[in-house]
Known about the structure:
- By secondary structure, the chain is mostly helical.
- The chain has one domain (about 5-70).
- The chain contains three helices and no strands.
Amino acid sequence: MDTDLVLTIGIVLLVLSVPSLLAAWAETRAPRIGAIMVVAALGLIITALWVKPGGYAFNQVPGVMVGVVSRLFE
Length: 74
């Protein structure tokens, strides 16, 4: 699997976990699904950073995500 795709999926999953965590916090319940999503997202991001030779610089991430989305719509 392409490391750019893994990084993008990890970042999107991390962003999508925030509403779940906030809803659980507001309802004073355990954030089970949100926590699972965060762990999965961090695992994907760390895998992408570890597998790609040289890793990613912070300023490369937006370009990588735009590239993945553009490949999706080709």
